[in-house]
Amino acid sequence: xxxxxxxxxxxxxxxxxxxxxxxxxxxxxxxxxxxxxxxxxxxxxxxxxxxxxxxxxxxxxxxxxxxxxxxxxxxxxxxxxxxxxxxxxxxxxxxxxxxxxxxxxxxxxxxxxxxxxxxxxxxxxxxxxxxxxxxxxxxxxxxxxxxxxxxxxxxxxxxxxxxxxxxxxxxxxxxxxxxxxxxxxxxxxxxxxxxxxxxxxxxxxxxxxxxxxxxxxxxxxxxxxxxxxxxxxxxxxxxxxxxxxxxxxxxxxxxxxxxxxxxxxxxxxxxxxxxxxxxxxxxxxxxxxxxxxxxxxxxxxxx
Length: 303
Description:
Blueprint: E1 2-3, E2 12-18, E3 21-29, E4 35-39, H1 50-56, E5 61-65, H2 84-98, E6 104-109, H3 111-121, E7 129-135, H4 140-147, H5 153-165, H6 168-172, H7 179-186, H8 189-197, E8 205-206, H9 210-216, H10 218-230, E9 237-246, H11 260-263, E10 264-272, H12 278-281, H13 283-302
Parallel strand pairs: 4-5, 4-6, 6-7, 7-9, 9-10
Antiparallel strand pairs: 1-8, 2-3, 3-5
Helix pairs in contact: 1-13, 2-3, 4-10, 7-9
């Protein structure tokens, strides 16, 4: 879990229950503005979005929460509890509880983006989701379809490049194997992100649950990657989708979005000169691009 130096400007905190899962929710911003739900990935919590939320709060109602398995939310023990279908249903539960009757905009990073793609792919997505903005997280079904596409040297080269970038996920599939490394890494997280992502360590302030969040949320990888990449089921998406490509991202290469044009009817592609943890390094860019997209979608919806 990462906490940026800017505090999340939370005005209230509530708990949303879905079955036996309790989700810690944090809200800020303009209560009469469009609702934007921020979804974090591994190994973060809602505090990943501190800088982005601060910049969106004047005009928008900003809603964030700790995913199951992270921060102050419930930590299920079973691997199956971390399937992206379950986490997507959590997002919908939060939106329904906090913004009842509204169609919310979703901004997701890393696994939060993977979850957002699942939300956008649901047949009834338009009933509750107005738009989705993806940052540094693939649609696993699109990626699986791309990897199984017709042979070409370009496809082989791109697949190899993403395979190298994702090599760490192989170790994450094996229960217990990465745990000692992650326990040590959790105590050096600012220095690791300085090395891996070029971040100023002063932007990274690990929270007390980082070590547990790292290990608990390995179940995300075990519950989803082999299943989705091995048996992809890409579905058409009619919601407006914006993909913000961090051009220097070492973990998620642009090739993961190669199939998006084939499945998304309203697709916007933007680039920022960032690496993986862009919510920490480039919060102003993410807030600006998200606001522009939300405003455009709103105009189109009203029209």
